[in-house]
Write a structure and sequence with these properties.
This protein is mainly beta. The chain contains 5 helices and 24 strands. The two termini are 24 Å apart. It comes from Novosphingobium beihaiensis.
């Protein structure tokens, strides 16, 4: 396929199950689907249906008291026909319903849903976790919601004291995971936790002129640093702590890293972070290294719209082909939106990042 050829439409409508059942009328009346997934878990879903069915005298509203589209209903979405083994892209519960009257079309009934982390964003509490690792805390909270924690290698295993202060369980988990550059996603009944950009959920090949509809790739040194310095005080001894760590590349890809290019072509930049709260020497060094890796991983950013693919999820690695050779690399997906409508078919828009820029050939 040449670059100027039109990208083929991937029009297969998603398969929708409500409380474990498929309903032909839902499939026939589906107007659009949108599923958003980002860092920190809790993906969200929007499904809009034409709220009209014909009868002998005209038409009436399809959504009524007997409709399966109700608050609290379980909903699963698969990217394509069930007969083709389409991948699941959402599993959650209806949390809101909407009815819309339009001047230029039939009424629309919309359901909004959130995944299995929804209960965790509704329970707020104050609680202390003493001498526990990050994985221990995740495991304890996950079990409260009938989820099994999967804590991967690379997650810091130092035992610490943690304080959840008038926070929802979801907000607390997001805060402590982000501090150590970790992320969580619900897959089935498992709460998966790992370092961002370390473990590939899947590997998807994307090619310009074929599976890539449009893409913008940016290598930007504005947020790059060559070193991170953390300064604070040890809460046990009261002594000052001060640690400086070199910023290293972290995540998928190959080539020159942002810190390397910054130092070679501009000047070394040592960033001082003095607002991290009390830290002992070990934590100061660890958090300085993690912050340097976090910044380096975001050196090259990809904003892409691709033919719909259920494998394009947060944590997936993508291999770009057919683009400028400097950017033909592997990227880690950080946000993804799966959408379908009658006009555009099934598409996946996503943001991804890579720590490296290849040399021009």
């Amino acid at each position: 396929m040449a670059l100027h050829d039109p990208v083929p439409l991937h029009a297969t409508a998603p398969t929708i199950e409500v409380d474990g059942q498929s309903f032909p009328m839902l499939a026939a009346n589906l107007e659009h689907m949108r599923m958003n997934e980002g860092p920190g878990g809790l993906s969200s879903l929007e499904l809009a249906f034409i709220d009209s069915v014909p009868d002998g005298t005209g038409s009436h509203y399809a959504a009524n008291s007997a409709s399966p589209l109700r608050l609290g209903a379980g909903v699963r979405v698969f990217a394509g026909a069930a007969t083709t083994g389409a991948g699941e892209i959402f599993d959650g519960q209806v949390t809101a319903i909407e009815s819309e009257i339009r001047p230029d079309g039939p009424p629309v009934f919309t359901i909004l849903a959130e995944d299995r982390l929804f209960p965790a964003r509704r329970r707020r509490r104050t609680r202390a976790y003493e001498a526990m690792t990050l994985g221990d805390v995740v495991d304890e909270i996950a079990s409260d919601f009938a989820l099994t924690a999967e804590v991967r290698d690379g997650v810091d295993q130092t035992a610490r004291n943690w304080m959840q202060a008038d926070e929802t369980d979801l907000a607390f988990l997001r805060r402590i995971l982000d501090r150590f550059d970790c992320d969580m996603q619900v897959v089935g009944d498992r709460l998966q936790v790992g370092r961002v950009g370390m473990d590939q959920r899947a590997l998807v090949m994307l090619t310009a002129g074929d599976t890539i509809i449009s893409a913008r790739i940016t290598a930007d040194v504005a947020e790059q640093v060559t070193a991170i310095r953390k300064a604070s005080f040890d809460p046990e001894t009261g002594e000052a702590t001060d640690s400086e760590e070199h910023a290293s590349a972290f995540g998928p890809g190959e080539g020159q890293s942002g810190p390397e290019i910054l130092e070679q072509n501009f000047s070394a930049v040592a960033m001082h972070c003095g607002r991290s709260g009390p830290l002992n020497d070990g934590d100061a060094a660890l958090l300085a290294r993690i912050e340097g890796e976090r910044r380096a991983r975001g050196f090259v950013r990809l904003d892409c719209s691709a033919r719909g693919d259920s494998g394009l999820r947060v944590g997936t690695w993508v291999q770009l082909e057919g683009v400028n050779p400097m950017f033909a690399n592997q990227f880690a997906v950080r946000r993804a939106t799966h959408r379908w409508d009658h006009e555009s078919g099934y598409r996946t828009d996503f943001l991804a990042e890579c720590a490296y820029l290849k040399e021009a050939s």
